[in-house]
């Protein structure tokens, strides 16, 4: 542009900022060397033990911890973040040069995922800062629900008021439920016009909520003569495709809404539908024949765009690439472990976490970075093998794959493509094609996101996460402990099963283009549920030793005890220091350090175990949708109550949006068998502590208090620490109603605990 100043053309659109990491590295290496000392100590002192079993088990577990820690050190070694500068971009590139973008939202169940949440996500996305004629929004409804469809139609009407309002007044948070919750009336200092519009929009939004609420309360009367006719008598798992263009921006009028399209793909009990991955592939194909944008953004139904500039941030990376850097699909995830994320950012880039992420369509279509230099022509036959029979889809895919930085324009109106769209949304379309295997979202894991991202990194692409002051997207973490467990179990089984696919990170680093350290990062992630076995083993050791009067720690007055104490103190202080650096509280640190241990022994263990029958072909893992909760009332009160449940999204939301409202809950329990191992560990440690106390009481302190040192104080300390970790379970043993652990679970766990105590006594005679 002529108006460019020298400065603005020279300043980069994106910058990688390297964090100095020396102190952290030093501490991590110190912990690593202490771990190695422990292993050496175990080997050297093996023969001096009265009982070999605890010593051997401890050695095995500690070897595992050392291995995992080594992976962590490798991943975190270099730390960097990427900063993007939308204002520089706008000075340099005119909006008409932006590539267009297809946005996908997935929902699966209007009850587990209340429509109003999904609709807020939709509204926040329709209102992002992006030229309207570049945008199309697709909603995939796996629930085939007339309620979702109805809400979507009504929301689109409301969006015609909401979007212009947001853009006119540059509203920051464009999900109305957040916007109107944070402000109960417009600021006095604002203009009169603003105040009026504000009030009328708040009223309209209230109306929208009421309509959706009412519709949710009564069964849907499907009138054959209306748009709802197609939903008559359909079953969510057995119905033809329903695709409706709800709003169409034919002329690309800037004041109008973007294209808004509803999709409920065909389902039949005879065909696998592959849950979210299947839905994403249908979205990819339908959008391929309708708008075929070179960029896509996918978002879970509960993840609203918190930063309206998110598209511009992503554009900074696109144009930064055009300026000569390496190409990458855009990652924008909420990571639970910042430092790991920063670490991975300095390798090939963050994992794809399933939501809030921009992808290039050609990357999803299976291309590799070096394909750019190859000839563009793929034979029609090959295209059919990969993408399937649809001529429209093959043509659009060919256009994407042969793109040589030229713009891909295909703004024919979506409503003229319905027939082709229905074809590619059918449930048998994928047979004999590469969908789910080479292209699109990959099948074979309930963590389809990680698997798909791994496939992309495996081809040599890089990814990036933008960091701006505002989180790009915010979503709901499960609000109850049982649903947290379910989610974590799904993640657990999903990540570990990746190791048994052809996308095993070690294979990809040998055979394909996955970088070695990136492979270590994936290995760390995929082995995460396997941690449960040594975890639970190590947690039983103190109880075992106290009950049998044996040791797995050196005695308090022996030198090597210092190594163990050193690790404990240094590691915990170190994690706390990491937390402080990103502004998290002591409470947060304590919650997270506890919940990690609890989850290890419950959900991860089940995730890990549930993979075994699947690998043997005896069962299929299923994707259970997480319950999302919508509360519009009394946010303040919710904040005071209860313990935040440690999931990653919660962690981020906790920091910035303390009153988001979904996030907090006291522990509640259901009859899920998942908590049994946790309760067993708790009970066993309680028995052990009572045992230990009695022994301490018996000591005649006046005679020789030194014998106390012989009594396994280290083991006792561990037991107490575990008790603190399981504090919520302890409360649950005595809690009422939902807050109490069901008595059947307590009985079952009690029986296992007794068995354990009994076996301890017996085994001490054998080993
Ligand atoms: O058959 C299905 C099941 C789920 N979904 C959608 O998938 C998304 C994620 O489901 P959710 O129950 O919220 O799972 P989470 O555990 O919260 O999701 C995380 O983990 C998933 C993998 O386990 C990823 O797919 C997600 O993107 C990631 O946010 C939601 O929009 C659902 O509507 C479908 O479209 N079809
Ligand atoms: Mn979710």
TrEMBL record:
<dbReference type="GO" id="GO:0016760">
    <property type="term" value="F:cellulose synthase (UDP-forming) activity"/>
</dbReference>
<dbReference type="GO" id="GO:0016759">
    <property type="term" value="F:cellulose synthase activity"/>
</dbReference>
<dbReference type="GO" id="GO:0071555">
    <property type="term" value="P:cell wall organization"/>
</dbReference>
<feature type="transmembrane region" description="Helical">
    <location>
        <begin position="26"/>
        <end position="44"/>
    </location>
</feature>
<feature type="binding site">
    <location>
        <position position="276"/>
    </location>
    <ligand>
        <name>Mn(2+)</name>
    </ligand>
</feature>
<dbReference type="InterPro" id="IPR005150">
    <property type="entry name" value="Cellulose_synth"/>
</dbReference>
<keyword id="KW-0812">Transmembrane</keyword>
<dbReference type="Pfam" id="PF03552">
    <property type="entry name" value="Cellulose_synt"/>
</dbReference>
<keyword id="KW-0808">Transferase</keyword>
<feature type="binding site">
    <location>
        <position position="142"/>
    </location>
    <ligand>
        <name>UDP-alpha-D-glucose</name>
    </ligand>
</feature>
<dbReference type="GO" id="GO:0009833">
    <property type="term" value="P:plant-type primary cell wall biogenesis"/>
</dbReference>
<dbReference type="GO" id="GO:0030244">
    <property type="term" value="P:cellulose biosynthetic process"/>
</dbReference>
<protein>
    <submittedName>
        <fullName>Putative cellulose synthase</fullName>
    </submittedName>
</protein>
<feature type="transmembrane region" description="Helical">
    <location>
        <begin position="519"/>
        <end position="541"/>
    </location>
</feature>
<dbReference type="GO" id="GO:0005886">
    <property type="term" value="C:plasma membrane"/>
</dbReference>
<feature type="transmembrane region" description="Helical">
    <location>
        <begin position="56"/>
        <end position="75"/>
    </location>
</feature>
<feature type="transmembrane region" description="Helical">
    <location>
        <begin position="674"/>
        <end position="694"/>
    </location>
</feature>
<keyword id="KW-0328">Glycosyltransferase</keyword>
<feature type="transmembrane region" description="Helical">
    <location>
        <begin position="706"/>
        <end position="729"/>
    </location>
</feature>
<dbReference type="GO" id="GO:0012505">
    <property type="term" value="C:endomembrane system"/>
</dbReference>
<keyword id="KW-1133">Transmembrane helix</keyword>
<keyword id="KW-0961">Cell wall biogenesis/degradation</keyword>
<feature type="transmembrane region" description="Helical">
    <location>
        <begin position="561"/>
        <end position="577"/>
    </location>
</feature>
<feature type="active site">
    <location>
        <position position="142"/>
    </location>
</feature>
<keyword id="KW-0472">Membrane</keyword>
<feature type="transmembrane region" description="Helical">
    <location>
        <begin position="598"/>
        <end position="616"/>
    </location>
</feature>
<feature type="binding site">
    <location>
        <position position="113"/>
    </location>
    <ligand>
        <name>UDP-alpha-D-glucose</name>
    </ligand>
</feature>
<feature type="active site">
    <location>
        <position position="449"/>
    </location>
</feature>
<feature type="transmembrane region" description="Helical">
    <location>
        <begin position="741"/>
        <end position="760"/>
    </location>
</feature>
<feature type="binding site">
    <location>
        <position position="300"/>
    </location>
    <ligand>
        <name>Mn(2+)</name>
    </ligand>
</feature>
């Amino acid at each position: 542009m002529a108006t460019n100043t020298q400065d603005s053309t020279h300043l980069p659109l994106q910058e990688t900022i390297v964090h100095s990491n020396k102190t952290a590295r030093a501490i991590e290496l110190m912990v690593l060397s202490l771990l190695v000392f422990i292993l050496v100590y175990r080997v050297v002192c093996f023969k001096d033990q009265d009982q070999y079993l605890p010593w051997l088990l401890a050695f095995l577990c500690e070897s595992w911890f050392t291995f995992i820690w080594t992976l962590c050190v490798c991943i975190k070694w270099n730390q960097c973040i990427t900063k993007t500068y939308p204002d520089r971009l706008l000075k340099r590139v005119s909006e008409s040069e932006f590539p267009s973008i297809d946005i996908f939202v997935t929902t699966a169940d209007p009850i587990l995922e209340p429509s109003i949440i999904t609709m807020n996500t939709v509204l926040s996305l329709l209102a992002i800062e992006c030229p309207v004629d570049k945008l199309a929004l697709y909603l995939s409804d796996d629930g085939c629900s007339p309620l979702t469809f109805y809400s979507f139609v009504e929301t689109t009407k409301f969006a015609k008021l909401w979007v212009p309002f947001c853009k006119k007044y540059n509203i920051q948070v464009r999900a109305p439920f957040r916007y109107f919750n944070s402000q109960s009336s417009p600021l006095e200092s604002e203009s009169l016009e603003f105040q009026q519009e504000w009030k009328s929009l708040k009223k309209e939004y209230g109306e929208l909520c009421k309509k959706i609420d009412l519709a949710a309360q009564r069964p849907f009367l499907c009138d054959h003569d209306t748009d709802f006719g197609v939903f008559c008598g359909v079953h969510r798992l057995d119905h033809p495709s329903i695709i409706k263009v709800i709003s169409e921006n034919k002329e690309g009028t800037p004041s109008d809404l973007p294209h808004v399209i509803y999709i409920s793909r065909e389902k039949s009990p005879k065909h696998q539908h592959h849950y979210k991955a299947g839905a994403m592939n249908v979205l990819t194909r339908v959008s391929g024949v309708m708008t075929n944008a070179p960029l896509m953004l996918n978002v879970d139904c509960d993840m609203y765009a918190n930063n309206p500039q998110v598209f511009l941030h992503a554009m900074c990376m696109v144009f930064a690439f055009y300026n000569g850097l390496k190409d990458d699909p855009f990652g924008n995830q909420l990571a639970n472990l910042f430092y790991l994320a920063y670490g991975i950012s300095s390798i090939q880039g963050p994992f794809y976490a399933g939501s809030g992420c921009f992808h290039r369509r050609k990357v999803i279509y299976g291309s590799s970075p070096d394909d750019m230099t190859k000839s563009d022509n793929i034979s029609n036959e090959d295209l059919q093998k990969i993408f399937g029979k649809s001529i429209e889809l093959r043509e659009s895919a060919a256009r994407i794959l042969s793109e040589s930085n030229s713009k891909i324009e295909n703004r024919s109106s979506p409503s003229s493509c319905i027939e082709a769209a229905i074809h590619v949304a059918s449930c048998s379309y994928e047979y004999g094609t590469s969908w789910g295997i080479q292209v699109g979202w990959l099948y074979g894991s309930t963590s389809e996101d990680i698997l798909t991202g791994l496939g992309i990194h495996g081809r040599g692409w890089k990814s990036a996460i933008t960091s701006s002051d505002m989180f790009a997207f915010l979503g709901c973490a499960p609000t109850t402990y049982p649903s947290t467990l379910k989610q974590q179990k799904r993640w657990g089984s999903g990540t570990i099963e990746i190791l048994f696919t052809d996308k095993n990170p070690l294979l990809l680093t040998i055979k394909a283009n996955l970088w070695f350290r990136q492979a270590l990062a994936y290995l760390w992630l995929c082995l995460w549920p396997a941690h449960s076995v040594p975890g639970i083993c190590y947690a039983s050791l103190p109880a075992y030793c106290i009950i049998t009067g044996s040791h797995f720690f050196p005695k308090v007055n022996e030198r090597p005890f210092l190594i163990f104490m050193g690790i404990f103190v240094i590691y915990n202080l170190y994690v706390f220091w990491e937390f402080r650096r990103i502004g998290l509280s002591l409470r947060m640190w304590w919650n997270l350090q506890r919940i990690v241990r609890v989850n290890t022994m419950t959900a991860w263990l089940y995730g890990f175990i549930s993979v075994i029958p699947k690998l043997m072909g005896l069962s299929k893992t299923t994707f259970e949708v997480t319950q999302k909760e919508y509360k519009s009332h009394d946010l303040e009160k919710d904040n005071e109550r209860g313990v935040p449940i440690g999931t990653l999204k919660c962690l981020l939301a906790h920091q910035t949006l303390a009153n988001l409202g979904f996030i907090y809950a006291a522990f509640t329990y259901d009859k899920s068998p998942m908590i049994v191992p946790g309760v067993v560990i708790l009970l066993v440690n309680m028995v052990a502590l009572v045992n230990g106390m009695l022994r301490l009481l018996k000591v005649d302190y006046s005679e020789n208090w030194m014998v106390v040192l012989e009594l396994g104080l280290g083991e006792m300390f561990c037991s107490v620490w575990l008790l603190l970790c399981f504090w919520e379970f302890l409360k649950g043993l005595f809690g009422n109603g939902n807050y109490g652990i069901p008595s059947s679970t307590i009985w079952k766990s009690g029986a296992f605990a007794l068995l354990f105590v009994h076996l301890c006594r017996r085994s001490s005679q054998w080993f």
